[in-house]
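If you are new to this repository, start here. Below is one unmodified record pulled from the training split, so you can see the exact layout before writing a loader.
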Amino acid sequence: MVEALRNFQLFLDREAAKSSPLYTALTAQVSQDLQDGGPISQVLVAAPERQRIPNLLFAAVQRTLFDEPDSDLAEYYPSLGGTRAPDAELAETFSRFVLAHRDRIEQVLATGETQTNEARRAAQLFPAFGWAQACTRRPLGLIEVGTSAGLLLHADRYAYVYEFEDGSELGAGEGSADGVPTLRCAVTAPAAQTTPQAIKALTPFVSKDLRIASRVGLDLNPLDPADPEARAWLDALVWPEHAERRARLRAALDHAARRPVRLRKGDALRILPDAVDSVPDNAIPCVFVSNSLAHWTADGRADFAALIRRLGTRRDLVCVIKEGYATGLGLFTGRTHNLTEDEEAPYEVIGAAVYLGGQERLFRLGTGELHGVGLTWSPTPLPTNQ
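And here is the target side for that same chain:
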């Protein structure tokens, strides 16, 4: 359980403490329970090793709690109307609930996946798609790896407002996703730029309509946005205090259910070549992956990068990656650390591998904050394997 303890400590340090008082308190409790070999650690031991992570445990508990809204634990969950702040009784209440519903929680832990679908991440991907279109001068065939319910495949249909540090705003997007609130994203200028320069750098890639020739999502377990159980699981993955995220998720799922796109079940390493081949000849395949590769094995990530390179030798292709550097763009540069920025900074690097005429070119497009909240945009070409 050493790895599980490390996962919970990292979750506390990097994520929970920022915006979830409840998960901050519960993470500390579970960490102590793991050290002591307590009852919650026994629940985690029953789960497959790769499932012993904070998001899954807390989502499994919240999903179970949705069916037990009269439980004392619900008083602590704003997602169920609770208003009670974490206090001295939380630990016992949480443990009691977990043990009382252990079978159900273990079942969800064994089968659930970290398929959080945050539509606001599209605000970070939208300029990358605009950049890919400008770079190749062709319509895009969107192919998402790790698609969950496919919400990011609708990136062109959302409305965006990019908010700059001086109070300036830049509107973008088609805005045809009825019911989905405008996605707002804070833009921070890179160190070498002023805010006007940052606005000028971003504008060309968000001001023109995206031409989307096709769209398909690939996932080991794609989720139907119209399926009540799939929706409940995605809802459970949203942290209890995040009411705005939850409302946005539900609206985006409603839109995706009204305008379904093709979602394919299977291992991306096996079905990605066929998805690339299915893109119309007049378009360029734009494979993208966002907040997914960190859940793959190291060998799987290496195989993904190798597959993209093989596909790029036989057809023009763009691969957009929004992941931590080592698990994303670093797969292509050959480095495990991002030497251009503070290696400890808690952001995702947005990058691209472009294959035209069989030649690879790598680009660092910017960085993104957790849940699509913020963006730094500064496209820069990179050397390969250096």
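Two things worth knowing about this chain: The first helix runs from residue 2 to 19. The first strand starts at residue 140 and ends at 145.
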